[in-house]
Specification:
Elements (H helix, E strand, L loop, with lengths): L1 E5 L4 H12 L3 E6 L3 H4 L8 E3 L17 E4 L13 H21 L4 E7 L7 E4 L3 E3 L6 H5 L15 E5 L10 H20 L2 E7 L1 E3 L12 H10 L5 E2 L6 E2 L1 E3 H15 L5 E6 L5 E2 H11 L7 E2 L12 E2 L2 H7 L7 H8 L7
Parallel strand pairs: 1-2, 1-4, 2-3, 4-5, 5-9, 8-17, 9-14, 10-13, 11-16
Antiparallel strand pairs: 6-7, 6-8, 12-15
Helix pairs in contact: 1-7, 3-5, 6-8, 8-10
């Protein structure tokens, strides 16, 4: 295949490029080299500097391309109202402009990065009342150290369950809203252009080359940075929040599998990309600490961030059945290795 990869110099995009080339595919690398992500670093050799928001800037780059792997995005949570414009511009307008350019150059196959954040809160079940959708946790409960979501019917305890791709989307911040919009644009493009697209809903991605000490680096990287400063990792709430941590090499493998699948399809589909091995945030901190030598143990602080979800854990089943993707690196092994892996400044 001849594959054009946007965001090719990023944490995930660079791994995808490497795996594609190792598999004998031709890769065209495209990146804007945003300062927020790359901090003024020069573009790697062979990278085409291009803003995906400019539908007229592609020239001949898309000529003869079989598929596009779209990783370019402004990432993070978008905690300020003012952040909305940036996410809408880079993520939504960028994706729409890319699909216009693809249509003009008769490129009909797309794989792109979505995110677990499109779900908002995870899936919960009450033993008596079945599946429930809890309301946002009250500040008073969080202040009192009551972190679990109660059943909205009986106020009893809710157990978390795996989130599958049929779960309704409920974005909680500007970044999440932009990812939902990308999925909707892709679905519309498929119908209008007679194309095919796959959205990959990444869960908590970590691994070598992850950005260091930025708003986008993720909790595993923050735990690691604390250890390198000689400080104990600070665990919010009671550490019992459940997540799925997936290694970046597995995320790249999922993209390669999706690119191979999309070539024979004529629809839009979304897939969770996850390890399939749920782990608590407290255990994430413990695994990173042990990987760094174990001299500094995590501290459970009871602090919290308003708007954080309690549990969100993915089902890997659809990706396994339809893409043949199964993660190879479990979080206990991968997080321990991550404690000493090279990082990106």
């Amino acid at each position: 295949m001849r594959v054009l990869v946007t965001g090719s110099s990023g944490f995930i995009g660079s791994q995808i490029c490497s795996q594609l080339e190792a598999g004998g595919h031709e890769v065209i690398r495209v990146d804007l080299m945003l300062d927020q992500v790359h901090h003024g670093a020069p573009a790697p050799e062979g990278t085409h500097l291009l803003d995906v928001r400019d539908a007229l800037a592609w020239g001949q780059l898309l000529r003869g391309v079989d598929a596009v792997c779209h990783q370019a995005a402004l990432v993070g949570l978008g905690v300020r109202v003012e952040d909305m414009v940036g996410y809408a511009s880079h993520n939504d307008v960028g994706t729409a402009a890319l699909m216009v350019a693809m249509h003009q150059h008769d490129v009909r196959r797309l794989v792109f990065a979505s995110s677990m954040v499109v779900y908002g809160e995870g899936t919960y079940r009450c033993p008596e009342h079945g599946i429930q959708t809890p309301a946002p946790r009250p500040i008073a409960d969080l202040d009192a150290g009551q972190f679990e979501n109660p059943c909205p019917v009986c106020s009893g305890p809710l157990a978390w369950e795996l989130v599958d791709e049929s779960t309704p989307l409920n974005p909680r911040n500007a970044y999440a809203a932009s990812k939902v919009a990308q999925e909707h644009y892709a679905s519309s493009w498929v119908r209008q252009a007679g194309a095919a697209a796959i959205g990959l809903r990444y869960h908590n991605v970590y691994g070598p080359g992850m950005p260091r000490d930025t708003p986008y680096c993720g909790v595993a990287a923050m735990f690691r940075s604390s250890l390198q400063r000689g400080e104990s990792p600070q665990v919010y709430e009671d550490g019992g929040q459940m997540r799925d941590f997936v290694h970046v090499s597995d995320v790249a493998r999922a993209n390669v599998a999706a690119l191979e699948s999309v070539m024979t399809r004529a629809d839009y589909a979304a897939y969770n990309v996850c390890s399939g091995s749920p782990i608590s945030i407290g255990d994430v901190a413990q695994a990173v600490s042990l990987g760094a030598g174990g001299s500094l143990r995590p501290q459970v602080t009871g602090a919290y961030r308003v708007g954080d979800v309690r549990h969100v854990v993915a089902s890997p089943q659809r990706a396994k059945v339809e893409l043949g993707f199964v993660a190879e690196i479990g979080p206990e092994v991968g997080l321990a290795q991550f404690a000493t892996a090279p990082m990106r400044d």
